[in-house]
Write a structure and sequence with these properties.
Elements: H1 18-28, E1 32-37, E2 46-52, E3 57-64, H2 70-82, E4 92-98, E5 101-107, H3 119-135, H4 147-151, H5 157-163, H6 172-176, H7 178-185, H8 189-192, E6 196-198, E7 207-209, E8 215-217, E9 224-226, H9 230-241, H10 246-252, H11 261-278, H12 290-309
Antiparallel strand pairs: 1-2, 2-3, 3-5, 4-5, 6-9, 7-8
Length: 312
């Protein structure tokens, strides 16, 4: 699986209209001295560490209000602002709407993305996932979508392949087992239901390992309610891509050790189908590496699924 560092053509802070930058500085009470743009992730809005003239450091995310991704930025800001203090996530200092732009100012977190090929980093990530499940069950947010609402229509791609026609370049194993894959995929929704607030986009570039050895989760743009085990299983392909067998971790971790293996298979199967489908779509102009990321995710996850189900 490719690292998603440097995968999007993000706007720089100095490309934000001067009027908008002036309004942000007024709200923050000081001029911006330096702006360090962050290149990770797959969205093209501004993501920058700002150092102010008074020495204050903040993290700013900004996007034009008429951009197709603006609703996602609003959801992220709204969700992050409502998270309990015990959730390891950056605090929201303020949101600003001015001149047709939406800006969120977050607490700046010192740290780096965890490396999943480092045992100590993996241990810190797994401890964070256990903490999330504990603090976010039941969900502290009123209402909000369920995993069925947000992902039910999206994670049914094997069925589409089976009912219509699979891609011409689909691998031989998937072609041989297409009906099985569609059948297994159809069973993921029921066991995925639950009342835990899920992040649903855990990847190394959405985490920061702080100097004290704890992990903070960023980018809460896709929250929904579901079973607590979903976030760890969603991260597991990244573990596999780093050379780690996810299965012993799932068997031992508190959020997955009592989960029915068939439920994990079904959700993993649905993820593979999603990546197989979307990796073949045209690349977004400002995120040219997204499709290769999805193709590599499909390959790594498919190999893991093959080991689990043992189909020929």
């Amino acid at each position: 699986m490719v690292n998603s560092e440097g995968t999007a053509y993000r706007l720089d802070w100095n490309e934000v209209p001067a009027l908008v930058r002036d309004q942000v500085e007024r709200r923050l009470g000081a001029k911006v001295r330096t702006a360090d743009s962050q290149r990770g992730g797959f969205s093209h809005g501004v993501a920058a560490r700002l150092v102010l003239e008074d020495g204050t450091q903040v993290f700013a995310k900004a996007i034009s209000g008429d951009d197709a991704l603006a609703p996602m930025y609003r959801v992220e800001a709204d969700t992050a602002a409502q998270l309990p203090q015990r959730v390891p996530a950056p605090g929201v200092q303020c949101t600003i709407e001015t001149a047709g732009w939406f800006i969120t100012i977050f607490e700046d977190i010192e740290g780096h993305h965890p490396r999943l090929d480092q045992p100590s980093d993996v241990a810190a990530v797994l401890a964070m996932i256990e903490q999330l499940a504990e603090v976010l069950t039941p969900s502290p947010l009123a209402g909000g979508p369920t995993i069925a609402d947000d992902y039910g229509p999206k994670l049914m791609c094997w069925r589409q392949f089976a009912e219509h026609s699979p891609p011409a370049d689909l691998d031989d194993w998937s072609l041989r087992n297409l009906d099985r894959l569609a059948a297994r995929e159809s069973t993921w929704l029921e066991p995925a239901a639950g009342e835990t607030l899920l992040h649903t986009d855990l990847r190394p570039d959405n985490m920061l390992l702080r100097p004290d050895g704890t992990v903070v989760v960023v980018d809460w743009a896709w929250p929904c309610r579901g079973a607590a085990w979903i976030d760890l299983v969603s991260l597991a392909p990244s573990l596999a891509a780093s050379g780690i067998d996810p299965d012993p971790i799932l068997m031992a971790h508190p959020v997955t050790r009592t989960t029915d293996p068939a439920a994990i298979d079904a959700f993993l199967c649905a993820l593979v189908g999603y990546w197989e489908h979307h990796s073949r779509q045209p690349a977004p102009p400002r995120s040219p590496k997204l499709r290769s990321y999805q193709a590599n995710s499909a390959q790594v996850s498919r190999e893991w699924l093959k080991r689990r189900v043992r189909w020929k």
